[in-house]
Amino acid sequence: MIKMIALDLDGTLALENHAISPSTQKALADIHHNGVEVVIATGRRYRTTRYVIDNLGLNVFAVCNGGALVKAPDQSTIHIETFSLQPFLKSIRESGLTLFAQRDAHQLGGADFVVDSVLSWNDMTQRHIENNRDWCEISNLSKSDAEFMVAGCFGTEQELKLLSNQLKKQHGEAYNTIIVPHLESDWFYCEISLNHINKWQGLQKILTIFNLEPENICAVGDQLNDMSMVTAAGHGAAMANGHPDLKEAADFVCGHNQSDGIVDVVEYIRKHNEQQPR
Q: For the packed helices 157-171 and 86-94, what is the interaxial angle rounded to 10 degrees?
């Protein structure tokens, strides 16, 4: 029996301006009220995740920052993991890139993320800061002893691949790097986290609360940072607009993000559950 659906946001559930299509919203509300827990699993920070949750109209658990932060429906923090930036900050700077560092602002107060102030910023970094002036802090990160949940930077795909390879060469398996396209531009984003942090690791904190097993979960995503949950869940779905490697690894491919692909997944869950013994 499928008792939980875990949904990525960008490229999966969310449309432009954090919207959810009426058909998808209705389908998710229906299964939620019929005993299937709806959970968000995203690389977004919690503030922008809330925009989508509010449009969804359901009080749900959320795995944010790629698995480093887990929030309850009452918006309390039920799990967080942090780490120091100092071991690799110099490498980021030498690559000519600007580091962002994410924090649990909802719990701690203050900025959602801190931007390294030392180097000049590329166009995408500048745009991101301008769009988030109220929620970011600009600071020399080399002088900070704070720990953060996730770090990352914007760059070209080639720049970020070189950075990822360099971090692996210098630090072995200490860190995990995932490169994803920025959906509203030609830039890419490289997310840096502790090696064991991923969306499935975050979801497991929620599975424990509900006493569920992987076979009770259907996970849906579109990019490589969804690979952990799509492959570990008993039922893994990739969006039609998803990365080819994720579609290859998934149990099935649903419709496009822009065409209510999530409704296909809801129908899959309904049919699967109807076939299970009561």
A: 140
Looking at residue 229, its pLDDT comes to: 98
CATH number listed for the domain at residues 4-80+198-274: 3.40.50.1000
Nearest to 133 by CA among 147, 112, 154, 119: 112
Q: Write out residues in the chain with pLDDT < 50, as ranges.
A: none
Fold observed for domain 86-194:
3.30.1240
Q: Which helix (H) or strand (E) holds 242?
A: none
CA–CA gap between residue 113 and residue 116 (Å, rounded) = 10
Other residues' Cβ atoms within 10 Å of the Cβ of residue 89: 18
Kindly give the pairing relationship between strand 175-181 and strand 188-194: antiparallel
How many Å is the Cα radius of gyration of the chain? 18
- Kindly tell me the sign of the dihedral angle through the C-alpha atoms of 44, 182, 196, 151: negative
